[in-house]
Amino acid sequence: MSRKQLARSGGDLSRLGTDDTGATMLHLDMDSFFVSVELLSRPELVGRPVIVGGRSGRGVVVSASYEAREFGVHAAMPMGRAMNLCPFAEVIPPSHGLYSSYSQKVFDLVAQVTPDFQQVSVDEAYIDVSAAVRRLGSPVRITSQLRAEIEAQTGLSASVGIAGSRVVAKLASTRAKPHGQLLVPLSATREFLDPMPIEALPGVGEKTKEGFFRYGIRLIGDLAAVDEAWAGRVFGAHGHHLWRSAHGLDSHGMDRQVKDRSISAEHTFNEDVWDLSQLEHELLRLADKVAHRVRADGKVATTLGLKYRLADFTTLSRSITLDAPTDLAREIYEALRPAMRNLREQKSKGVRLLGVRAAGLMDFSASGRQVRLDEAEDSGREAEVALDDVRKKFGTAAISQASLLRKRPEHDNTGPDHV
Ligand SMILES: [Mg+2]
């Protein structure tokens, strides 16, 4: 079962009530965002099973229409598996650039409601409307208007959870999907959370779930009923965090939430750089830094970002949606290098700062990435993971650029650092 299906299995929502006093945290999540964006230009496919994702053997499902989900297809599933489940689905490769422009339109509308929002992915944000209530009305009213506005301006639909905290708002938006909104009144938080399966709680993966099951904790309500100190003793800091979530409490500030959702690194050059091999060297170093942290978190990235700042502080960014998620420096580097080269050619100016960002993070175990290890072609994964151990022992300085690319002799001539 996917996390979404899990979050949907819970109690009766009609009994939660309608008092939205103090329920000022919204979680907005666009409905099957990538598919919906594609359908805007292919109206003939509306109502049919549609999958956005890479068609190749290593491809995964980026997004599936609700019609395809009926067959059990969901995001992060290997495409081969998805095609077995739903052979007649229309598969559309991701359109680079299109998603971020629609995303921008959506969040421009959110920004008109309040500046107090945190975008956590291309189609998702937490919005604190406490400062907007006086001007725009109650949280439920603000939500209805915002959803109508998004639909009118972009043709896309959003679902929104309305609650007193981020964790409850997120679970509520999942229950509201698609095309819906759900208020969890402050007084109904327990009633909402208690009957949900423990693995619906953000941060509970397969391993943690098994741990909870050993102690008979199967529902969020079971975890809420134990002592916080016990949860901390058995599960460490994560136990405290999950226990707080089970009570509908957020552990971190909004910034932390954002950090959890993307991993980035950037570098400011001492002098503006124009030399391509020097730029490529830095891009690879940043890709390595980011990939290392993505792996350390047990994640893979589905979206990559490039930040490119010129001497006059003009900052350009490029976002790339991957056919297959990655946690490898070499793949991040290769995905971003064409964008960097294009910017360099377009702008013909020295570069002040370069940045690499990995986003749309999903659990490695859910990514279908293992499938690739069985393939004949060496993905280079083992080599990079081995480097993680070297780092642990000797520090980052022990890693040379060459060791990252050594499996790819065709790169030997792209610059002095790649030999
Ligand atoms: Mg979404």
TrEMBL record:
Mg(2+) binds at residues 29, 123. Its cofactor is Mg(2+). InterPro entries: DNA/RNA_pol_sf, DNA_pol_Y-fam_lit_finger_sf, DNA_pol_Y-fam_little_finger, DNA_polymerase-Y, DNApol_IV, Rev_trsase/Diguanyl_cyclase, UmuC. GO terms for molecular function: damaged DNA binding; DNA-directed DNA polymerase activity; magnesium ion binding. Residues 25-205 form the UmuC domain. GO terms for biological process: DNA repair; DNA-templated DNA replication; error-prone translesion synthesis; SOS response. Binds 2 magnesium ions per subunit. Its EC number is 2.7.7.7. The keyword DNA repair applies. SUPFAM superfamilies: DNA/RNA polymerases, Lesion bypass DNA polymerase (Y-family), little finger domain. The record marks 34 as: Substrate discrimination. Keywords: Cytoplasm, DNA damage, DNA repair, DNA replication, DNA-binding, DNA-directed DNA polymerase, Magnesium, Metal-binding, Mutator protein, Nucleotidyltransferase, Transferase. It is an enzyme of class 2 (transferase). It catalyses: DNA(n) + a 2'-deoxyribonucleoside 5'-triphosphate = DNA(n+1) + diphosphate. The active site is at residue 124. It is found in: Cytoplasm. One of its GO terms (cellular component) is cytosol. Belongs to the DNA polymerase type-Y family. Poorly processive, error-prone DNA polymerase involved in untargeted mutagenesis. Copies undamaged DNA at stalled replication forks, which arise in vivo from mismatched or misaligned primer ends. These misaligned primers can be extended by PolIV. Exhibits no 3'-5' exonuclease (proofreading) activity. May be involved in translesional synthesis, in conjunction with the beta clamp from PolIII. Monomer. This is DNA polymerase IV. It comes from Brevibacterium aurantiacum. The lineage of its organism: Bacteria, Bacillati, Actinomycetota, Actinomycetes, Micrococcales.
